[in-house]
Recover the amino acids of this structure.
């Protein structure tokens, strides 16, 4: 089968399309013929080994694991002897332990669910990582409540577009922060208010929010504090620089949390959870979340897909379509 492989850390130029052995599912695994896969910042962080401590897991001098891609959608090709939920031919989506940029990949019953009939393979594959990140950040870390005023910074990105829609689904009043060219997009997915960050600083408008969900992580702890209501919470789900995360969120944010009724902190790493994947499926089926996809590339152009993702200008998700049926 064909798959994207890299053998040294560095830019997307190091990604190669090669012929590799098709994986065989273990007893508890499901082999999926991949139709579509999503790019995520996780891919380029591992590809570049940035920040450097990524190498502690992936290999100090060269990558021990030479495959990328964790979000997929496709058709079940074969199942292991202990798998009972799926059978060959089923349409599924979810996560794999890397190797999603390929014609075949393996997942488990815990990491895959049936694809909603009315959602394209591309749309389904676009949602797992961003869905886990938005749901677990807003619900588990942020304790989002119906009727609260929520602000999503980075509302037009992959995580942000899902966060806006999920917050609306639980009955929050949502403000989305994005650039001028994305204002209409963020309104179209349900934001009650939008702020153009090129024209206005959301931390200096005088408005305060019960919960700030920051998918960008480019503000100071003092700025977050200024924009929070007296008992407000700020959840930082992404970061622009490692220094900003350590200094502003982990250190100064924790000081503000201890010294006041306001809470500022990061959500940590989102976890693959079957219950949350089923929730994502329900949100897609109900139309409460509509996938937002910027661009799609064929498998042979995965390097270009990740190169575009790295620009930080993507509106929603950047996809890799392994077959022409991905958008059907």
């Amino acid at each position: 089968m064909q798959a994207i492989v890299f053998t040294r850390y560095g830019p997307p130029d190091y990604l190669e399309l090669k012929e590799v052995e098709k994986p065989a599912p273990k007893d508890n695994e499901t082999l999926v013929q991949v139709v579509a896969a999503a790019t995520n910042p996780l891919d380029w962080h591992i590809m570049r080994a940035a920040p450097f401590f990524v190498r502690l897991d992936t290999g100090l001098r060269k990558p021990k694991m030479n495959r990328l891609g964790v979000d997929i959608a496709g058709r079940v090709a074969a199942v292991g002897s202990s798998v009972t939920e799926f059978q060959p031919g089923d349409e599924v989506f979810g996560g794999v332990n890397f190797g999603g940029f390929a014609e075949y990949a393996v997942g488990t019953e815990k990491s895959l669910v049936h694809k909603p009939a009315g959602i394209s393979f591309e749309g389904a594959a676009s949602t797992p990582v961003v869905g886990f990140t938005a749901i677990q950040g807003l619900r588990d870390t942020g304790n989002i409540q119906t009727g609260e005023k929520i602000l999503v910074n980075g509302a037009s990105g992959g995580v942000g577009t899902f966060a806006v829609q999920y917050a609306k689904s639980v009955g929050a009043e949502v403000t989305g922060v994005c650039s001028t060219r994305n204002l209409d997009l963020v309104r179209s997915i349900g934001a009650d208010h939008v702020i153009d960050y090129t024209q206005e600083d959301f931390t200096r408008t005088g408005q305060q929010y019960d919960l700030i969900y920051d998918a960008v992580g480019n503000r100071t702890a003092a700025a977050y504090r200024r924009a929070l209501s007296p008992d407000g919470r700020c959840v930082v789900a992404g970061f622009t620089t490692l220094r900003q995360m350590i200094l502003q969120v982990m250190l100064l944010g924790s000081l503000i949390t201890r010294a006041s009724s306001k809470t500022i902190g990061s959500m940590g790493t989102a976890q693959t959870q079957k219950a949350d994947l089923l929730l994502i499926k329900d949100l897609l089926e109900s139309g409460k979340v509509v996938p937002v996809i910027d661009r799609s590339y064929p498998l042979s152009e995965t390097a270009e897909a990740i190169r575009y993702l790295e620009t930080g200008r993507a509106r929603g998700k950047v996809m890799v379509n392994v077959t022409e049926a991905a958008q059907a």
Remarks:
- The domain at 129-266 is CATH 3.40.50.720 (Rossmann fold).
